[in-house]
Amino acid sequence: MSAQSSILDRLGILADAAKYDASCASSGTAKKSSVGGKGIGSTEGMGICHAYAPDGRCISLLKILLTNHCIFDCHYCINRKSSNVVRARFTPQEVVDLTLSFYRRNYIEGLFLSSGIVKSSNHTMEQLVEVARILREEHDFRGYIHLKTIPEADPELLAQAGLYADRVSINVELPTDAGLKRLAPDKSAPQIAGAMAGLKREIVEAKDARKRFRSAPQFAPAGQSTQMIVGADAASDADIVGKASTLYGKFGLRRVYYSAFSPIPDASAVLPLKRPPLIREHRLYQSDWLMRFYGYTTAEVQQAADPVSGMLPVDIDPKLAWALAFRDRFPVDLNRAPREMLLRVPGLGVRAVNALIAARRHRTLRLDDVARLTVSIAKLRPFVVTADWRPTLLADRADLRTMVAPPRSEQLELFAA
């Protein structure tokens, strides 16, 4: 087998093994360009699409593991120590060479690098940092780098990672400490929290230093993120929403990502036999959005869930579920209501609300004006009042949920054969 063939074989194994990590979005990085300098790489431009930044730019990432060897035995992980999978490993220099080669072919704009734990947490973290160091210092690579850090590693190594990476992340893995102890016995919830707190402290201190001294080094300018596995344990959606809110508040995270549990070969008997519906993952992302951009409190989002099971409905989004649970707050007068109440109207996004507020300064809004700013006016009609529309008894109908719920469609599997 030739060396090139061997690298391609390992790339196939380690790129496939990385697909279960959802936290690879590249939003939040500062724009960097090699124009006018000797560096290589950029966080601007177009390539193979893997993620979108908030401003609409398409960000392409080489997303791989350094190795899928692991000394840990987390039940839900396909790369766990006891798993019967083909193993592979890259050296730091090989990852660097692959990144530069893919970039020069305009396939990627950055690197997302994670790894199983080989030999020890410190040894693995040293190799991850070495990849980023070589790219930045020896090749002046200015593209995006996201390093998945290891909470069990020394804090000094995590600090080094933040000096080279645009974003760093540590997976909390599971929503509850009990679930983590049961399914990932080698991991420690307090240790994970301590590592995340350390990264937050480094990020804050670096920002303060940059305000005083322009020459102060940046530290993970795109912040830190984390990921939770959904459906591997008994945690409800309300539990997950509560955990996410705590993580945002304590550690100043840029994003919490959710990954629906996927059954793996030779799975442990303690795991569920079926994966959760992928729509559950989608509903959690929608809930996350409500807390981050629509002004909902954690408790309000949890109120959209079933009071007994704690699960969000799968047939309607959580914003609509909340509106149906609190019909006394509606209808909302679109010509007079404050922005925070307009954001509660099902079917109205942030852009539509901003456009309505701008428009009503100049004229009285009618239903046709609203229809031009939304995808479906039918969803809004029971919840709004305009100059020519008042729902009267529509909001009190017993079959209102059926009226406003979207038609059911078949849920496709993400990794179906």
TrEMBL record:
CDD domains named in the record: Radical_SAM
All copies of domain Elp3/MiaA/NifB-like radical SAM core, residue ranges: 60-287
Signal peptide: none
Keywords, alphabetical: Iron, Iron-sulfur, Metal-binding, S-adenosyl-L-methionine
Cofactor requirements of the protein: [4Fe-4S] cluster
Gene3D superfamilies: Aldolase class I
Pfam families: Radical_SAM (PF04055)
NCBIfam families: rSAM_link_UDG
Name listed for the protein in its UniProt record: DNA modification/repair radical SAM protein
Organism whose genome encodes this protein: Novosphingobium tardum
Lineage: Bacteria, Pseudomonadati, Pseudomonadota, Alphaproteobacteria, Sphingomonadales
